[in-house]
Amino acid sequence: SAVISQKPSRDICQRGTSLTIQCQVDSQVTMMFWYRQQPGQSLTLIATANQGSEATYESGFVIDKFPISRPNLTFSTLTVSNMSPEDSSIYLCSVAETGTVYFGPGTRLTVT
Amino acid sequence: GNSVTQMEGPVTLSEEAFLTINCTYTATGYPSLFWYVQYPGEGLQLLLKATKADDKGSNKGFEATYRKETTSFHLEKGSVQVSDSAVYFCALSDHDDYKLSFGAGTTVTVRA
Q: Among residues B19, B17, B23, which one has the least CA distance to residue B2?
């Protein structure tokens, strides 16, 4: 299975600022996704990161708030923009490979 | 759209007890079904999966059978251990897009 790493693993940020999260995969994958897990909640899909084109966002998520880059088949970034305390969550990168979806370790974000 | 309804927790058991976590789903078509596990302080790991009706997924003593007639994918383990204490998530995806819809998660605590 693909090995996924994320940076940073955690961060504490001031409201109004932005944070960019990096996701690196050890093999080329076509399908890469970003999820959010709010405190004590389940996971919600934010968007599909498409290589060479704009990301596809799920209902309730917009590009201005969560811009995503996917410059190649092994790397993606998610930016959380103009943060508020409600953005405090774990953000997870995931990839689909051989019919299964695998997850990175997550980035724990706290907004104060 | 797709949705997953999962037995609410928390669930507390003694070691060697039998564990069942109920999961039912709503989907158009024939989704793939998954159980993921999140151990304390760790990332989300795939526990088992099934991709078509009557398939049984199994791993680490856990089993779940894809029941199309009852749209269910209940997780079972015959004899739990303290190390099985974790949050368990049921999830589904359409075969083609690998976008996961998650249940709410069930927290399981096993006491020695």
A: B23
DSSP letter (8 states) at residue B42: S
Do A46 and A34 touch, CB atoms closer than 8 A?
A: yes
For the segment A38-59, the average pLDDT, to the nearest whole number, is 92
Interface of B with A (CB under 8 A): 32, 34, 36, 42-46, 49, 51, 89, 93, 97-105
**Nearest of A74, A41, A29, A57 to residue B102 by alpha carbon:** A41
Pairwise CA distance, residues A3 & A26, whole Å: 6
Q: Would residue B104 be called left, alpha or beta, if left means φ above 0 and alpha means ψ between -120 and 50 degrees?
A: alpha
Q: Using the beta-carbon criterion (under 8 Å), do B102 and A43 form an inter-chain contact?
A: yes
Reduced 3-state DSSP string for A30-45:
CEEEEEEECCCCCEEE
Per-residue pLDDT of chain B (112 residues; tens, 9 = 90+): 889 999 888 999 999 999 999 999 999 888 999 999 999 888 899 999 999 999 999 999 999 999 999 999 999 999 999 999 999 999 999 867 899 999 999 999 999 9
The pLDDT, as a whole number, for residue B91 is: 96
Q: Does A60 touch chain B (CB under 8 A)?
A: no
Residue with tokens 């309730």: A60
Query: Measured between alpha carbons, how far is A29 from A95 in angstroms, rounded to an integer?
Result: 7
Out of A45, A102, A106, the one facing B46 most closely (by C-beta) is A102
